[in-house]
Amino acid sequence: xxxxxxxxxxxxxxxxxxxxxEQPNFPPRYNVAPTQPVPIVRANRDARHFGLVRWGFLPGxxxxxxxxxxxxxxxxxxxxxxxxxxxxxxxxxxxxxADGWYEWRRFPGPGSKMVKQPFLLRxxxxxxxxxxxxxxxxxxxxxxxxxxxxxxxxxxxxxxxAIHDRMxxxxxxxxxxxxxxxxxxxxxxxxxxxxxxxDLIEFFEVSxxxxxxxxxxxxxxxxxxxAGLI
Length: 230
Prior knowledge:
Layout: E1 4-7, H1 11-18, E2 29-32, E3 37-44, E4 47-55, E5 73-75, H2 88-91, E6 93-98, E7 100-108, E8 114-123, E9 129-139, E10 145-155, E11 166-168, E12 170-171, H3 176-180, E13 201-205
Parallel strand pairs: 4-10, 5-10
Antiparallel strand pairs: 1-2, 1-7, 3-4, 3-6, 6-9, 7-8, 8-13, 9-10, 9-12, 10-11
């Protein structure tokens, strides 16, 4: 599961990687949380475009968002047959812009109470990543619209499974076009939804300050504890 992530590299670096035509200027965000507006990349008419969606996917059939569970992640396994995602996986694939994400490892603490320790996971070369995602425009009965999206997750690789059994499906830069091309709505491209190579990601303990979504800033990504980089 990916419940928090980060977007900290300069906008110019993100634009070079993702190749969208817009030139947005956005501040670094070290603690992106569900329901917040988040940047995505999608393709339209042979060009990539920057956009903003609410992190929390709403399928078109939802009548009342208040009674529908918040979908921030979608499991890759069987995604093409699930009612909430089977249309979007064919017609509305996107990339979530990121350069790190957080996971919490559970272990027994004092008195057998379970403790959750946050970890930051990022590329070893500190470059940005494109998380596989889906987007959907939800319309209310009055005609109002909300752009929504979710991150697709897959099983962890042999390294990150030490922290969590799931990870975002990271699309290789060479596969961006294939993932974003929804011109053939019979294609789901689920073949691209796989764990990252074992040597791609590093991870280390960070402060529990990241638990509170209101906390932000580079101090959230400073290593703590004795483990260091893994």
